[in-house]
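Worked problem 6 (solution included).
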Amino acid sequence: MSEETVNKQEMPEQLSDILLVLDKEKMKIQAVKSIDENGKMETVDPTKKNQNQFMRVDKGGDFFSNFFSNFFSQLKNPTNFTFFKVPAPVAAEKARELQKHVDKPTPQGEKVLKEHEVKAEPQPDKKQENQNNMATAQTTTETSEYRYKPEQIDWDTMKNLGLSKEYLEKRNLLDPLLRGYKTNELLPIGINLGGSILRTDARLSLQQGEDGNVIVAIHGIKKEPYLHFEFFGHKFTDEDKKNLLETGNMGRVVNLVNSKTGELMPSIISIDRLTNDVIALRTEFIKIPDEIKGVKLNEEQKQTLMEGKPLYLEGMISTKGTEFSATVQFNADKRYVEFLFDRSNNNQQAQTNQQITQQSNQQSQPQEAPRTFRGKELDDEQYNKFKAGQTIYVELKDKKDQPYKGYITFDKDTGKTNFEFPGQYKARVEPAETHKTQTAVNSEGKTNEATKNVQEPLNSGQQTPKNEKQQEQQNNKSAKSKGRKM
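Solution. The predicted structure is:
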């Protein structure tokens, strides 16, 4: 059986599409044949003679979208090309038609080109923009496609950060990484600085480096959002800053400028409440649901949310079956419509943002105690005490597999785990116990057995007579007490 026959059996011609490409430098339409491991695309003339070499793709909408997204992410210099999707049986004819419209542009021809054009889904990488060190516009869509594979991850680097594949899987954090998104929570990581180790919390994401290798990106926590810098050509107004700090969303669409191509990108802007990064999302990737908590949205309401504006909804039904009302708004970082409840307005920007971050954390996910801490899985007895808020003793290992010990306590209010080395824990707890004893002596009239007969006021923390006079008082009282009993 010939290769051509096999191809036709696996993918019938009428159920497949052909990918055509326009090289913007050569202004020539070609048919895509393949893409090599270095991201170089191979093409052939779109003639019937070469049609057996055309790359065929299942024309199913979701399948094609996922395929093309993956194809585009691997392509070297993707902005040099414009892609078109055409049915396999008429690929050669369509290629000739498109070439005519490229050679002799007309309004009608432009319409035909747009009809067959495949919109390239940009990378989801949150690359930092120049010296401002800000997060770039997020341009990924909500999709089920996996952009990366587990074997592409540099697990040695992950291990150096104190993380493992098993740990990420248990926390359900590996899946969003493979889809091209940031982890939806902060992770405790350790960074080796040579003579010392820096331990901090950060969100992680995977990015494709210039050499094509997948790298681990660390999104550390900033003290406050960098709103005094220009962001992709946009200068934040006082109103923009106020909205971002109070709600986390700017509340309007602005044209951002692609620093490499000069392209204008209509986008909405939000704050990553976990790291304080400034995040943007192009409006073409905003998806508004038809219904929110039982309330069907009309076109006017959908348009309000599409423009990044807040919308007040009444008559929503909670998961407990109770009716409630709230303001909703599309968040560029989360990429979905979120609920905005009353937030405190503090004069200091840093404090305001901290309150917003804490409230967002509490609203977006339940504050449940993690079963694993720094790679150490707690047994049932430890976990039951830990989630109840009790301090437990644990033995851990650092990135060099060297053991160390300490105490951990789960804070239900913040959802964070507090760690203390034995010396820190004892320095905090033991004085507290001593203070409790002295309070009982001074405030409640209780005394230590060795000083209960001393008539003078005791010094703070005193457990025995401090001089001969007090010792004599203690001895005399004890003797008289024994005499009366006899």
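Discussion: Residues 238-364 form one domain.
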